[in-house]
Structure formats: structure tokens, C-alpha cells
Write a structure and sequence with these properties.
248 residues, mainly beta, Jelly Rolls, six-stranded mixed beta sheet, 18 strands, globular
Length: 248
């Protein structure tokens, strides 16, 4: 398990908290269906097409592809608040049993006061499920765990900045991420697609270049099916997950 470099990630996260005025009360909040708060513009996609945009606070749509295309945006949901960096295409799905976050690329900073259901994180590198959360004791009674997800062509990084630890499961088994540490999932090469439309966010392609089977946000359809409990015809390539050594 790799350790975080000191100061920079924590500084960035604390800055986002200050900018959006997040407090423990807000994170426990009253937003039953979730809210999205753009600092600029959030673009909404469906089936490769832009279907709308937000420029001010609005209900958070489930199972839609969202992209903060102009400035960062904030999310407020019961027991989860987040700061999504600009140009981070993502989607959220919630059921009685779990909450799922799909991310194509970019950075997603989060704060959790209580894990009321498993948190499933799905990217092209695979799936990480947060099964348990342990909070550190706090003198002021505002116990919150803060962390981040970063997705790039090198893979997926899940880190805990402060406030406690996460118990997660991956294809490699169960691991505990303590504050100041992260795990890395190596990403295998994705199938190539001839569709380079700017609005294309990695959804299933009909071309013959091998992209079929890559679904929402460039995530293999098999992974999405596993997360959502669906069945998908055909075999998808399986990405190998690894935990990296400390970065230089």
C-alpha cells in the first residue's frame, strides 16, 4: 500500500471544503435525493448525446452521465458530500442496498460522516467496494472521513486523507486503507474505438474495432453488470487489479 505525499492532497481537499462551506451537519444533510451545485456548468449526457446542463444548484440525477465541463461541482447526498473536479465524467446510482459511483477519468474528493450502505467505486480498472468505515475520535464531535478517487490512464487511485480508515474489497481480497494511505488499481489497455466524438463518454460503440462490451464511461460492460446486478451477453475483457508499491 502506498503512502500519500504530505500536504498537497490534504491542502486541496481542505480548500474545497472551505470554498463550499461543507460541515458535518450539511453532510448528514436533508437532501433526500441528492443535490448538485455547479461552480460553472454541468453537462448531462444520455446515449452519447448531450441532453441538458445545469448552471445552478439542482436535484442530482441518478444513472445519468454528468461532467463538470466548466469549473468544479459539489454533490450533497445523505451521508456523502463530494467535490468533483472539472472534466471528470461520472455517474451515480443508488439502491436500497448500495451506492455506486462510476468514473471515467479525473478526480472525485469525498467526505463521509457515516457509511450507511456499501459504497461501490467502478472504473475501467475494476471495482472497489467500501465495506466498512472506522472514524477517529474527535474532540468537537464532528467525525468525518475524507478521501479521494483519481482515475487516469495509469489506473485508479483510492486514498484516505484523514479522519479514519476504510475497509475495501477488490479482486485481490480485502484491504484496510488507513489515513494517509492509498491503493492503486492497475488498468489494462482498453479496446480501441474509432468513434472520437467529443460527446462520446465511452458508452457502448457499434463500430467493429473491438469497443463493443465497453459501456458507461469507458467501463467494461461486464463490470457495470456486476455492480448493477445485470446479466450481459458475451465475454468482456477482465482488467487485472494490483496494489502498487509507493510512488517515487
Amino acid at each position: 500500500m502506498a503512502k500519500l505525499t504530505k500536504n498537497k492532497p490534504l491542502y486541496l481537499f481542505l480548500t474545497t471544503l472551505i470554498l463550499f462551506g461543507f460541515t458535518a451537519n450539511v453532510m448528514a444533510g436533508t437532501y433526500d435525493n441528492g443535490r448538485i451545485i455547479p461552480s460553472g456548468k454541468v453537462t448531462i449526457y444520455s446515449e452519447n448525446n448531450q441532453v441538458g446542463e445545469y448552471t445552478e444548484e439542482a436535484p442530482l440525477p441518478m444513472q445519468s452521465i454528468l461532467n463538470c465541463t466548466s469549473g468544479d461541482c459539489a454533490l450533497r447526498m445523505p451521508n456523502l458530500s463530494a467535490r468533483v473536479k472539472e472534466n471528470t465524467p461520472f455517474a451515480i446510482n443508488e439502491t436500497q442496498d448500495s451506492r455506486s459511483i462510476f468514473i471515467k477519468e479525473g478526480s472525485f474528493f469525498f467526505a463521509i460522516p457515516q457509511l450507511d450502505k456499501p459504497l461501490v467505486i467502478a472504473t475501467a480498472a475494476g471495482v472497489v467496494t467500501v465495506q466498512q468505515m472506522f472514524l477517529n475520535a474527535s474532540n468537537n464531535g464532528e467525525n468525518v472521513l475524507s478521501g479521494y478517487i483519481t482515475v487516469s490512464n495509469k489506473g485508479t487511485e483510492l486514498g484516505v486523507l484523514e479522519g479514519g480508515s476504510l475497509v475495501v474489497s477488490t479482486e485481490n481480497g480485502e484491504q484496510t486503507i488507513e489515513a494517509g494511505n492509498r491503493i492503486l488499481l492497475a488498468q489494462s489497455a482498453p479496446a480501441k474505438s474509432s468513434n472520437t466524438n467529443a460527446a462520446q463518454l465511452g458508452e457502448t460503440s457499434d463500430d467493429s474495432s473491438g469497443a463493443a462490451g465497453f459501456g458507461l464511461l469507458g467501463i467494461p460492460a461486464g463490470i457495470i453488470a456486476t455492480v448493477l446486478g445485470l446479466s450481459v451477453a458475451g465475454d468482456d475483457d477482465k482488467n487485472e487489479q494490483t496494489v502498487s508499491k509507493p510512488l517515487p
